[in-house]
């Protein structure tokens, strides 16, 4: 005997407010008595702490927060004769009252996950119930598309942070300019811009564009914030030509990015770092906060 659940879309992706459809497949070679077939769709936010932030909350527990829960009876108690059966189902993707759906997201300290599970209940001393589940990917489109808000930037020795004033004179002079075409960026379009090394007396080793997630977990008036890298793209290698614009082009990774969200118990934000690495093993980094949305 075999039990499985399949969604109507190959990528398992549905938007908030849509109806999720699929079918439950039951295969059995003998008569199969059961006490009912139940489908459960469940979604929750799962926060967790890094080792260095574990002490911030003391003995407080960070419990998952349910944001979607739907129970759908499929069959009452009955008997399956030998054969294969396909049972269709459909349910709306709607939040629990008082909650708001968040997009599926696989982070380091915050995860938003949805599943569709089915259970074929059986009774008896020597039999066990059958269960199966599959992931559900939920998208949360933005109703109003924000303005791109491009960002023109310039990196100079004087603009560096975390550098003592008396050490600035030891940094070889350089000037790097560039532009990000959008700081309000759609998840479905490439993140683009350009960077230009206008001048530098020091040889350059590489130019990089780094995408960073900023995850915040809150509980009982306290919060822990962590920054972690999502991806790092090398856009220039070696001592790049001066005065030549180097294009920036990044496709945002699916599941590891999501619309920027701020909630009472958690936040998911994003930043990009424009990094200039010099041959003498020091680097200059410009941090630019960005807002992601699903258009």
From TrEMBL:
InterPro entries cross-referenced by the UniProt entry: Arrestin-like_C (IPR014752), Ig_E-set (IPR014756), Vps26-related (IPR028934)
GO BP annotation list: intracellular protein transport
Protein family membership: Belongs to the VPS26 family.
PANTHER family from the UniProt entry: VACUOLAR PROTEIN SORTING 26 RELATED (PTHR12233)
Name of this protein: Arrestin-like N-terminal domain-containing protein
């Amino acid at each position: 005997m075999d039990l499985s659940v399949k969604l109507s879309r190959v990528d398992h992706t549905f938007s908030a407010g849509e109806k999720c459809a699929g079918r439950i497949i039951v295969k059995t070679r003998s008569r199969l008595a059961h006490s009912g077939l139940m489908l459960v769709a469940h979604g929750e936010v799962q926060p967790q702490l890094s080792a260095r932030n574990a002490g911030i909350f003391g003995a407080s527990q960070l419990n998952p927060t349910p944001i979607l829960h739907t129970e759908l009876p499929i069959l009452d108690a009955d008997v399956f004769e030998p054969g294969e059966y396909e049972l269709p189902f459909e349910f709306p993707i709607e939040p629990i009252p008082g909650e708001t759906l968040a997009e599926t997201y696989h982070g380091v300290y915050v995860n938003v996950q949805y599943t569709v599970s089915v259970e074929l209940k059986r009774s008896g001393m020597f039999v066990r119930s059958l269960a199966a589940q599959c992931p559900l990917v939920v998208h949360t489109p933005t109703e109003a598309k924000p303005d791109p808000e491009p960002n023109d930037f310039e990196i100079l020795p004087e603009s560096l942070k975390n550098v003592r004033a008396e050490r600035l004179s030891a940094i070889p002079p350089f000037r790097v300019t560039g532009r990000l075409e959008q700081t309000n960026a759609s998840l479905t379009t490439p993140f683009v811009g350009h960077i230009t090394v206008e001048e530098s007396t020091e040889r350059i080793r590489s130019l990089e564009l780094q995408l960073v997630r900023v995850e915040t977990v809150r509980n009982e008036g306290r919060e822990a914030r962590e920054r972690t890298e999502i991806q790092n793209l090398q856009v220039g290698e070696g001592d790049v030509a001066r005065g030549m614009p180097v294009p920036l082009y990044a496709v945002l990774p699916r599941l590891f990015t999501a619309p920027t969200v701020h909630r009472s118990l958690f936040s998911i934000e994003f930043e990009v770092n424009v990094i200039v690495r010099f041959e003498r093993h020091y680097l200059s980094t410009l941090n630019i906060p960005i807002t992601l949305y699903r258009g």
